[in-house]
Amino acid sequence: MPKILEDARIRLISVARKQALTNGYPGMTIRSVAQECGYSVGTVYNYFRSKEQLLAEVMLEDWQQEVEEMKEKCRKASPAVALEAIYNGLSHFRSLYSSVFEDRSAQRSYALSDRPYHKILLEQLSAILEDVLKQNGLDNQSILPRFLAESLLTWEGKCPYEDLAMILNKLL
User: Fold this and answer.
1) pTM for this model (two decimals)
2) Any domain includes 63
């Protein structure tokens, strides 16, 4: 039976985050994370079955934090302010992990699972926007939060926010 170390999972995620953000996807390896933590490679595999799962856990934690920050910025905000806060949150997360998103080997590793993640992101952002629209008296348009969320996901990074805002704000 594998030996379970206290706080090992937290430490592994912390070191993996630091390495991924500093060295990019290729520079973060199971071996380098284990070495920096003072663990054996086998210990890392007791907690994560692959480099991809470890990095996914790192990114998930950061994404959840980004969502919480977006929710906070959108609380009691106008729809226009909320749209910009979400766009900026998406931009921040993408720039934080740009080395991962732009790495060909990382893209191949995550390519098969892209669609389910998009659906989850869409649902999270739609829920935030639904709350914003309700608090601003615009809750009678059931497709609008999902449409706005999809627009932000699709166009973030492809055009300046100001261009997108001109279109989206007309819907409100």
Assistant:
1) 0.84
2) yes
